[in-house]
């Protein structure tokens, strides 16, 4: 049976040159709050957290703050949105993140007792980043010492993708689908909701036109940005191809979306 899912936008980012980004001239941080009767509340992605919005330059660094220009509204954070939905943040027992970039891991500290599921390669990268990985991770976002639960490469097939279904403590309706490329252990997350399958692709792509050729193309700035932040561009391109093929084959039955596209967010909230 499908799970009840709430779509949350947990950060507003208006980067320099946003007019060349997309039609909305901003980026969201698309997160999911999943009601899983057997596991409590499950957060997929965390966006930016309370400490990030209250002191962005210190938490996120001056370069990110100056270029990406994150918003400072506390009501945007996942923890405040969980409260506004009438839930107790302490009931968020599990968090699964697509990767640990600073705009995805910011809210971890607002749920200090949750188990945090992440690909083992991503956790390893965050602990011992290569020189070119150093600017993407901020150790202060996990200084509280999360209860990490790592997963590895997929063993089960999900719509042609190798998936991991046996995530510790999570129901079988929540799967991780390793898609490295954007970062070392980047993974998508599939959730069987009460309205059908959802596939949160994280930063595997940045604009809806990448997977759905019927949409207007992205602005030139977004392509530059996507290339600049990709660890392995060849794998990113291959992920684009596989996800576009999935969209063509099963887009009618799977809600496929990425972390930062406002158009996808608004469509899935409708
Ligand atoms: Zn991101």
Q: What would you say this structure looks like, in words?
A:
This protein has 270 residues and is of the alpha/beta class. It has a single domain (4-269), classed as Metallo-beta-lactamase, Chain A, CATH 3.60.15. It is 25% helix and 25% strand. The longest helix is centred in the C-terminal third of the chain and has 18 residues, at 233-250. The two termini are 22 Å apart. Zinc ion is lined by residues 101, 103-104, 203, 259-260.
What's the CATH class label? Alpha Beta
Strand order of the largest sheet: 1-2-3-4-5-6
Class based on secondary structure composition and strand pairing: alpha/beta
Q: What's the pLDDT, averaged over the residues?
A: 95
Inertia-based shape = globular
**How large a portion of the residues is in β-strands, by DSSP E?**
15-25%
- CATH-level-4 superfamily name: Ribonuclease Z/Hydroxyacylglutathione hydrolase-like
Can you give me a brief rundown of this structure?
The chain has eight helices and twelve strands. With 270 residues, the protein is α/β, with parallel strands linked by helices.
Chain-wise SSE layout:
Layout: E1 4-13, E2 27-36, E3 40-44, H1 50-54, H2 56-60, H3 62-68, H4 78-84, E4 92-96, E5 115-119, H5 120-127, E6 147-151, E7 156-158, E8 161-163, E9 174-178, E10 187-193, E11 196-200, H6 220-228, H7 233-250, E12 254-257, H8 262-269
Parallel strand pairs: 3-4, 4-5, 5-6, 11-12
Antiparallel strand pairs: 1-2, 2-3, 7-8, 9-10, 10-11
């Amino acid at each position: 049976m499908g799970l009840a899912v709430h779509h949350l936008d947990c950060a507003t980012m208006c980067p320099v040159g946003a007019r060349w980004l997309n039609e909305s001239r901003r980026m969201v941080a698309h997160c999911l709050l999943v009601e899983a009767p057997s596991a409590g509340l499950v957060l997929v992605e965390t966006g930016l957290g309370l400490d990030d919005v209250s002191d962005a330059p210190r938490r996120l660094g001056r370069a990110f703050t100056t270029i990406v220009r994150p918003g400072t509204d506390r009501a945007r954070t996942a923890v405040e949105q969980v409260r506004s939905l009438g839930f107790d943040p302490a009931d968020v027992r599990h968090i699964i993140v697509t990767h640990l970039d600073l705009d995805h891991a910011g809210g971890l500290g607002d749920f200090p007792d949750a188990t945090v599921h992440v690909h083992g390669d991503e956790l390893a990268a965050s602990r011992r980043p290569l020189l070119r990985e150093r600017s993407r991770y901020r150790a202060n976002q996990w200084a509280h010492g999360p209860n990490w639960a790592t997963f590895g490469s997929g063993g089960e097939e999900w719509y042609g993708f190798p998936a991991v279904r046996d995530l510790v403590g999570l129901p079988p309706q929540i799967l991780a689908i390793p898609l490295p490329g954007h970062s070392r252990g980047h993974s998508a997350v599939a959730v069987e909701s009460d309205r059908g399958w959802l596939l949160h692709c994280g930063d595997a792509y940045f604009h809806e036109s990448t997977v759905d050729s019927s949409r207007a193309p992205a602005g030139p700035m977004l392509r530059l940005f996507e290339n600049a932040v990709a660890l392995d561009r060849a794998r990113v391109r291959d992920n684009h191809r596989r996800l576009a093929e999935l969209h063509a084959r099963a887009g009618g039955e799977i809600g496929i979306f990425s972390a930062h596209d406002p158009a996808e967010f608004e469509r899935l909230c409708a």
